[in-house]
């Protein structure tokens, strides 16, 4: 749902179907102007909002024989041959347009389309049906020549994940890479990203198992090194003692030592210092996680890595940790945040005077854990985490930081923002304003919260919202 503002401040709510109609209309206009990628991106955004309505609109365009460029564009995105352009509507960026979503959209338009087949195979892989994927790919390779490379890579991944000797799966990957390096890498990044850490470890095991290459293995090892470098360009694969190589080889203790040594050195190399440092910090955090190290050390390294270079840290996080290990990080961060906040609450209850600052230092690990969670949690969980971080910053005495983050989170970023998601942030911003003596701003925010309905009862700051409003209004009444 999206709020629209009408004359004289009146508001009404835009339904998902209305939003789809607006996005499809934008797509129609770009298609008429000869801009198929932008048109298709708007159709895809509409599909992500309300699939049935979007499918009706786009099928109407296809029936008018205007849809061939749209289908061709979706096919290219499914193969990873081109990037999905960023689109904006009503002043907001439309996010979450991915190759997987393009596959689902194309499959919904044409259920027998090869992209739909790949989408169903991806679902089987996600549920662990590796043998079924291999059998289906074997049957389809003879009838889907245009998707032969993609089917070959899907079959190769199923073999790698099946637990059987990985030689056949690796050989299929390297054959595909030799046939078309760019398409192979694009497909892996678009459709197999959750499995990249497993694939990297498998490729590294393969190439490190041939210390003395023969004529028969030399070319294969060259392709293997090339695929490793393409999937993880930040990693010095030629150096068998590099932290990244030690990590993927399973030498976690040695990786911890090598990472720490490299972080202490001024000559880290490998690109801009910030990006290289972020990569090393994530590598050390991964090694600590995999050795069962202390969660605070893991989270502190990840926090510093994302502060140094968010993009490099995210790439390395996804490259060296499997989906299961990434979930372990999220669980550890959530547990650290919950336990740390509980300790702070106990310290508050034990104060002789409620307004004392004793115990604020207990919130430092909480804010660290929440900052990490904000970087690695699914998009749907981030609004609540952001609100919790604003609350902790305010309670820790960082009023400026809390207010700045609150302001950023309150900016509309997507269609469908619910009023209830904004109420806690408005309440917290009101308390930040009170701390700074900005009574007018506080009154506006507290009144907006009351107008939207009571905020969530969770969290001691939000629970005091009504009292803060009474305090502000009482002060205003006395001045009158």
Residue share in β-strands: under 5%
N-to-C order of helices and strands: EEHHHHEEHHHHHHHHHHHHHHHHHHHHH
Low-confidence blocks of residues:
1-13, 455-466, 476-480
Q: How helix-rich are the residues, as a percent range?
A: over 70%
Question: What is the CA-atom radius of gyration, in angstroms?
Answer: 26 Å
* Largest sheet strand order: 1-2
Number of helices: 25
Mean pLDDT: 80
Which class do the helix and strand fractions yield?
mainly alpha
How many β-strands, per DSSP? 4
How many structural domains can be distinguished in the coordinates? 4
Described by the principal axes of the CA atoms, the overall outline is: flat
**How far apart are the first and last residues' alpha carbons, in Å?**
40 Å
Largest sheet: 2 strands, antiparallel
InterPro entries: TPR-like_helical_dom_sf, TTC34
């Amino acid at each position: 749902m999206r709020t629209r503002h009408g004359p004289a401040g009146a508001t009404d709510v835009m339904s998902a179907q209305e939003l789809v109609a607006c996005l499809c209309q934008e797509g129609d206009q770009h298609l008429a102007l000869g801009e198929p990628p932008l048109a298709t991106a708007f159709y895809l955004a509409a599909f992500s909002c309300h699939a049935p309505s979007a499918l009706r609109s786009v099928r109407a365009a296809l029936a008018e024989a205007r849809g061939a460029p749209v289908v061709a564009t979706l096919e290219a995105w499914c193969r990873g041959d081109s990037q999905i352009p960023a689109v904006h509507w009503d002043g907001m960026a439309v996010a979450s347009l991915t190759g997987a979503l393009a596959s689902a959209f194309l499959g919904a338009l044409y259920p027998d389309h090869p992209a739909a087949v790949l989408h169903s195979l991806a679902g089987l892989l996600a549920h662990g049906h590796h043998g079924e994927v291999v059998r289906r790919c074997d049957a389809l390779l003879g009838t889907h020549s245009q998707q032969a490379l993609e089917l070959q890579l899907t079959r190769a991944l199923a073999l790698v994940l099946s637990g059987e000797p990985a030689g056949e799966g690796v050989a299929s990957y390297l054959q595909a890479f030799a046939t078309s390096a760019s398409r192979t890498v694009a497909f892996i990044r678009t459709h197999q990203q959750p499995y990249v850490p497993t694939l990297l470890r498998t490729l590294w095991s393969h190439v490190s198992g041939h210390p003395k290459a023969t004529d028969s293995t030399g070319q294969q090892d060259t392709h293997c090194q090339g695929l490793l470098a393409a999937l993880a360009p930040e990693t010095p694969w030629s150096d068998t003692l590099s932290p990244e190589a030690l990590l993927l080889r399973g030498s976690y203790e040695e990786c911890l030592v090598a990472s720490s040594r490299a972080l202490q050195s001024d000559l880290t190399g490998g690109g801009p210092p910030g990006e290289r440092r972020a990569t090393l910090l994530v590598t050390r955090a991964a090694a600590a996680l995999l050795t069962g190290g202390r969660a605070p050390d893991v989270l502190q390294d990840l926090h510093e890595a994302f502060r140094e270079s968010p993009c490099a840290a995210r790439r390395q996080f996804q490259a060296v940790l499997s989906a299961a290990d990434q979930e372990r990080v999220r669980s550890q961060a959530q547990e650290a945040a919950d336990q740390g906040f509980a300790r702070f609450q106990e310290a508050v209850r034990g104060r002789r005077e409620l307004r004392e600052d004793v115990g604020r230092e207990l919130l430092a690990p909480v804010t660290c854990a929440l900052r990490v969670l904000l970087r690695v949690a699914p998009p749907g969980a981030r609004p609540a985490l952001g609100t919790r971080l604003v609350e902790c910053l305010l309670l820790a005495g960082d009023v400026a930081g809390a207010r700045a983050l609150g302001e950023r989170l309150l900016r509309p970023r997507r269609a469908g923002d619910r009023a209830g998601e904004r109420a806690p942030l408005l309440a917290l911003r009101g308390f930040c304003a009170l701390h700074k003596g900005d009574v007018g701003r506080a009154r506006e925010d507290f009144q907006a919260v009351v107008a939207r309905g009571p905020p969530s009862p969770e969290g001691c700051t939000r629970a005091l919202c009504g009292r803060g409003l009474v305090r502000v209004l009482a002060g205003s009444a006395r001045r009158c």
